[in-house]
């Protein structure tokens, strides 16, 4: 039997997935992979994190080599080898060795194109200084420049990859300027969802320049089109990619409307013996049905596998692309799926939009973080068209659930009935996804009509009255201009005071507003809820305000060249977090010292717990991890009652006092002091766990006796100026 000849042009995600799948399906085939670069299988999504020192070893990014692929899969992998031309009639490819210049011809029975995409480079004077980050060679060039210890960096483009570059350059201790031609960071998101990301960047000292572009690069500066000059010793560009279709065009293959290779339902090109996968290929949009370019690793891997199935005669189904994506930026997690509102409104589609602001898990359990969610729904069919989320832990899994619901054809109101995993440290009994479903169901049933933040000005100009149902304290902290304050708990008795006409009701996040609308409607008043409340309105206004606002950013401190990059990055990160924590605590405490005392303590304790965990001493634990209560020995041999033995990272136990300070690794416990025993100072941390009535909007228990986070006593760390062992020595 004659062996099949499979030729694959391009490695990494799509090409290597096709090659290894072909081998698993056909042991006797001759499979050849041609890769123009020096590495055929590497973690391109991890490149920014080696740049920032998070991934310390360059070798960790190299997943497979030609030798390892030959040994395991019997693949003929050739790096530094370029496919020059395709002869479709003869079913051959002209191949050039980029090292020796030698040219040969390779025949094929089936050909897979996976050429990827090339970074866009705007023409400008000095543009050759701009680095990109697409492969290992790009990474090596960038690391070589960083070895010269620049103090400033300019990142051009505020998309997903651009923000990953910014984060890692900040971690290295560079002063970073971010320039984006659009009017917001993360252009695929809607503006009110992108605003918290821009705010976090500015808090970290990043000089964010929106609505402008770089016109010239000097030796260590960049000039913008508004005439300003920014420091730019190190320049990285991330302004998008273009599909690499030169080989396909030369071969006469059909291209799509967006300039990518056009493929059918079986990933076959206009030539029946040629398949194409990856970033160079147009995908069908799952929402609009139009063809578009979606450069995502997950799609490339999956389509490479499917192409191999199709080549070997199997029936395949290529799903339309949702474009589900996630990125982490300076402690924030941002994720999206489907289409944004702004894109759908341009298409003229009738929409219903939902904003919520739940917490990541049960608010009474330590560490809960507020998130912002947005769900875009077809107003006529209740079909989910898109979702976006910004927050901390748990954002990614909620967007994954919604993406799965979209793939399964669930309606928005069906989200209310999803049975999702719950424990206090992971979620709430009403998961944020369920909450979106509840709001959607209320809208479908006509119980709570709503208005969007960008529609508010026009509505008020038309005579609608804005009623703020938050507490007087919240109203004093910040209010929408033109609103009147009638707290929800007083609304029933004060309905007669409200002006005539339609009322627009709002609270902080929308839940109290929903209650107010239901109350007013049953008293005969025409009322609508401001969707997402004050937080969504504030984020939307901030997104527009920063476009034309002057950019005044304190310069980042110069790096200490006497210390290592990772040490400098840790110092800067800790300093930023400490300043933010202190400023937030002081401002909140000054306004509401009694109501927010637990919130301030929780924030401080979470920061210290994170810092100790990063040092490898301790970590926060879940109740499921907790061991039995036991009595342990003090260093002098006497018993210390009421401790809990928890498993520590690496298998070592950690001792946590039930009601006081102290997560202390065993190897860091203070030694016995023959001159006496002096126990550590203790901080009262509140009552034991119990289920309290809650205010879901604030994410805090309604009763002040709820238990905040465990206090971590930094003084147990050896070398700390207040080391407890020194205290004992003095006693």
UniProtKB/TrEMBL annotation:
Keyword tags: FAD, Flavoprotein, Oxidoreductase, Redox-active center
Task: Report the residue ranges that make up the Rhodanese domain in this protein.
Answer: 460-546
Q: Which domain of life is it from?
A: Bacteria
**Chain positions covered by the region annotation Disordered:** 548-731
Q: Does the keyword Flavoprotein apply?
A: yes
Tell me the first and last residues of the signal peptide. Answer: none
Spans of biased composition, class Basic and acidic residues?
Answer: 560-577, 624-639, 670-698, 712-731
Listed Basic residues bias regions? 591-623
| Pfam families xrefs | Pyr_redox_2, Pyr_redox_dim, Rhodanese
Is Metal-binding given among the entry's keywords?
no
Q: Which cofactor does it need?
A: FAD
Which InterPro entries does the UniProt entry name for this protein? FAD-bd_OxRdtase (IPR050260), FAD/NAD-bd_sf (IPR036188), FAD/NAD-binding_dom (IPR023753), FAD/NAD-linked_Rdtase_dimer_sf (IPR016156), Pyr_nucl-diS_OxRdtase_dimer (IPR004099), Rhodanese-like_dom (IPR001763), Rhodanese-like_dom_sf (IPR036873)
| UniProt xrefs under PANTHER family | NAD(P)H SULFUR OXIDOREDUCTASE (COA-DEPENDENT), PYRIDINE NUCLEOTIDE-DISULFIDE OXIDOREDUCTASE DOMAIN-CONTAINING
Family per UniProt? Belongs to the class-III pyridine nucleotide-disulfide oxidoreductase family.
**Name listed for the protein in its UniProt record:** Rhodanese domain-containing protein
| Organism listed in the record | Agromyces marinus
């Amino acid at each position: 039997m004659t062996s099949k000849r499979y030729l694959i042009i391009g490695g990494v995600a799509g090409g290597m997935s096709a090659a290894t799948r072909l081998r698993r399906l056909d042991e006797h085939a001759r499979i050849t992979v041609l890769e123009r670069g020096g590495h055929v299988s590497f973690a391109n999504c991890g490149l920014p994190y080696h740049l920032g020192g998070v991934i310390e070893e360059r070798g960790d990014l190299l997943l497979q080599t030609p030798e390892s692929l030959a040994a395991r899969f019997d693949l003929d992998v050739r790096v530094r080898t370029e496919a020059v031309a395709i002869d479709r009639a003869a079913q051959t490819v002209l191949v050039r060795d980029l090292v020796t210049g030698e040219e040969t011809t390779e025949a094929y029975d089936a050909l897979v194109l996976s050429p990827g995409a090339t970074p866009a480079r705007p023409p400008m004077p000095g543009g050759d200084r701009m680095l990109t980050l697409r492969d290992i060679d790009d990474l090596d060039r960038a690391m070589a420049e960083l070895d010269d210890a620049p103090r400033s960096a300019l990142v051009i483009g505020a998309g997903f990859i651009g923000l990953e570059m910014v984060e890692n350059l900040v971690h290295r201790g560079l002063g970073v300027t971010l320039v984006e031609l659009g009017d917001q960071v993360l252009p695929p998101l809607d503006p009110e969802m992108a605003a918290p990301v821009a705010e976090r960047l500015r808090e970290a000292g990043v000089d964010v320049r929106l609505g402008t572009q770089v016109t010239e690069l000097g030796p260590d500066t960049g000039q913008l089109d508004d005439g300003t000059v920014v420091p730019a010793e190190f320049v990285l560009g991330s302004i998008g990619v273009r599909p690499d279709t030169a080989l396909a065009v030369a071969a006469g293959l059909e291209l799509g409307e967006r300039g990518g290779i056009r493929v059918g339902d079986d990933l076959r090109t206009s030539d029946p013996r040629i398949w194409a996968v990856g970033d160079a290929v147009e995908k069908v949009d799952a929402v609009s049905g139009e063809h578009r370019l979606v450069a995502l690793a997950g799609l490339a891997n999956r389509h490479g596998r499917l192409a191999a199935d199709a080549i070997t005669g199997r029936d395949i189904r290529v799903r339309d692309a949702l474009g589900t994506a996630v990125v982490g930026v300076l402690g924030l997690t941002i994720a999206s799926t489907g289409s944004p509102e702004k894109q759908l409104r341009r298409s003229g589609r009738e929409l219903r939009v939902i904003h919520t602001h739940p917490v990541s898990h049960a608010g009474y359990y330590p560490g809960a973080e507020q998130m912002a969610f947005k769900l875009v729904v077809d107003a006529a069919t209740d079909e989910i068209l898109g979702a976006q989320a910004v927050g901390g832990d748990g954002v990614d899994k909620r967007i994954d659930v919604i993406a799965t619901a979209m793939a399964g054809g669930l309606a928005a109101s069906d989200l209310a009935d999803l049975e999702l995993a719950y424990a206090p440290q992971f979620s709430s009994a009403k998961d944020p996804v369920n909450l979106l479903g509840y709001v959607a169901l209320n809208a479908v049933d006509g119980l709570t009509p709503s208005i969007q933040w960008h529609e508010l000005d026009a509505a008020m100009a038309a005579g609608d009255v804005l009623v703020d149902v938050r507490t007087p304290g919240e109203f004093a902290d910040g209010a929408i201009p033109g609103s009147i304050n009638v707290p929800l708990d007083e609304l029933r008795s004060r309905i007669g005071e409200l002006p005539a006409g339609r009322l627009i009701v709002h609270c902080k996040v929308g839940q109290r507003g929903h209650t107010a609308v239901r109350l007013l409607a049953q008293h005969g008043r025409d009322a609508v809820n401001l969707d997402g409340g004050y937080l969504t309105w504030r984020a939307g206004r901030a997104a527009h305000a920063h476009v034309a606002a002057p950019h005044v950013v304190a310069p980042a401190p110069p790096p200490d060249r006497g210390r290592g990059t990772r040490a400098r990055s840790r110092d800067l990160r800790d300093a930023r977090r400490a300043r933010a924590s202190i400023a937030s605590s002081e401002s909140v405490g000054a306004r509401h010292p009694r109501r927010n005392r637990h919130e301030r303590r929780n924030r401080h304790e979470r920061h210290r717990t994170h810092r100790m965990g990063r040092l490898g001493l301790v970590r926060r634990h879940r109740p499921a991890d907790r061991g039995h209560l036991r009595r342990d020995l003090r260093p002098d041999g006497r018993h210390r009652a009421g401790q809990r033995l928890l498993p520590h990272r690496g298998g070592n136990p950690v001792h946590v006092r039930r009601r006081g300070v102290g997560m202390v690794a065993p190897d860091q416990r203070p030694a016995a002091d023959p001159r006496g025993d002096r126990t550590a100072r203790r901080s009262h941390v509140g009552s034991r766990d119990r289920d309290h009535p809650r205010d879901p909007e604030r994410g805090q228990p309604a009763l002040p006796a709820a238990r905040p986070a465990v206090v971590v006593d930094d003084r147990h760390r050896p070398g700390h100026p207040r080391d407890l062992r020194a205290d004992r020595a003095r006693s």
